[in-house]
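Sequence in, structure out.
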Amino acid sequence: MRDGFIKVAAASPKLKVADCEYNGEQILESILEAEKNGVRLLVFPELSISGYTCGDLFLQETLLQGCEHTLEELLQKTADLDILYVVGMPFAEGNKLYNVAVFCKNGRILAVVPKTNIPGYQEFYETRHFAAGKKEAVSVILAGQEVYFGTDILLTCSDMPEFVIAAEICEDLWVPDSPSVRHALAGATVICNLSASDEIATKPVYRKNLVSMQSAKLVAGYIYADAGNDESTQDLVYSGHDMIAENGTILSESSLYAHELTISEIDVKRLASERRKTTTYRNEREGYQIVPFSMNTELTELTRTFPRTPFVPSDEQKKKQRCEEILTLQAMGLRKRLAHTGCRTAVIGLSGGLDSTLALLVTVKAYDILNKDRSDILAVTMPGFGTTDRTYQNALDLAASLGVTLKEISIVDSVRQHFKDIGQDETVHDITYENGQARERTKILMDLANQKNGMVIGTGDLSEMALGWATYNGDHMSMYAVNVSIPKTLVRYLVDYYAGETDPKTEAVLKDILNTPVSPELLPPENGEIAQKTEDIVGPYELHDFFLYYMLRFGYAPSKIYRIAKIAFAGEYEEAVILKWMKTFYRRFFSQQFKRSCVPDGPKVGTVALSPRGDLRMPSDASVSLWLNEIENPEA
């Protein structure tokens, strides 16, 4: 349970309709198996002790007594287990019969939650047997224990305050005003759904979409346990379609017609963080009965995966769709700015590197959307002390293949004069030596834009902004920054995608640019090759993008990011290397906020962005001490 990861499971065990003793044995087997796998919350299907398809047998006293006796035995046999499980059964209270979810732990019943929406249409006849549950929790006796009974009950973990459980049953999910909406607004982060959804053609896809969407709407974990294929097939077939979802993502899903445990880990701290950021997410706990419970908080073994490049979809088809979508977003942002300002010329510093290449491709797309002549795009290559033949030639070839206007202006003489003016020794390759070149290039671009009724298109990306890897008032500045919310790992995929969609000549140039080391080229080359490789200095961008994503998107603490980074990059980076670059990331992220506080306009294209006008209101002089202190002992 540490770091907010709760191992949960859904089970659809074998059963015999109306054979409570047999069903109890199968349920116990699943509980023991789940407990052995470290599961802390286990959900069974609707009416799992009796079977869902008992029909009018639900009205027999013998069946009701059999269910209660089986529940008593389950409580006795699981009294020493640190697992909370939820079983379904019929429950008679007063003059009514209810379809309920029974929460059990350590031999005690924590709560009994009745179904709210009772279907009586098409193949469903539940209204013949069951009454709708009421919201207000009242005290009842079940299996010799006094317990709360009602729909509006929250089970809260005293050892993990973010772990708050509520329940709804089958049809409750399918109606417009699902009880889970109310539960989530009251604070439930995990919803248990005990279900018996019969199978018909195409229904699994719809059901999966429904569970996924409900978890997204609620910003919650959702555990869906479905009746299995041992239910009566007199008229219907059941498949045991179990699912675990988290905020719109299906974490785990069972095979149909199987009796396997479906296991994953729901991150309740991540859900709580997401809700805190969403100011429209209300707190409405009035009228709810709170039932506390406790659990051991040992380290949860994780089975869910964490992609190394969270900004990039792993599925190839989705990756192509996402790349086209992002390029269009960038281009449409620039299109609006060009049309609004009436600028004729787009001015871009073209280095032959990845970022300026992407900025040029986006600008070309924007010009095509506007039906403007590409020749009005002015690509400026400005060779200096660190420019290599490879990047220089790629800049020339790319401009020619895309049909834009190319202008070459060497900065060597002007930078030397500047160094002379300020007394900078050209043989001293310090930060003044490097930044002087970057600022000279920006000055040229700005003046050309004035001269040509143009606009300087920024090339810097999200990763560079996060690390402050940009020269203040140099490449840090532009008139519209099309790459400002594109992380470096995604820049590469966007350029690669464009290469696969364009003509052979342009593709060949783009492929060589993709194979060129990332560098600002501000230091003289060695034997004609790039001497200054960015990732040798600040660290691998795939690590920094990983840290950035989980820090800003979900508010993960450094120790938690370190934990999942070790999983994601196992076999790629040693733990000490991950820790080294994580320290670099946090130091630079905090110390370089002053550059992000005054970045130019640019389009947001993903869930993580650094604009001070929207996504990151952070003081430039905030201390990094808390974060670095945690990194010093991340596994404490």
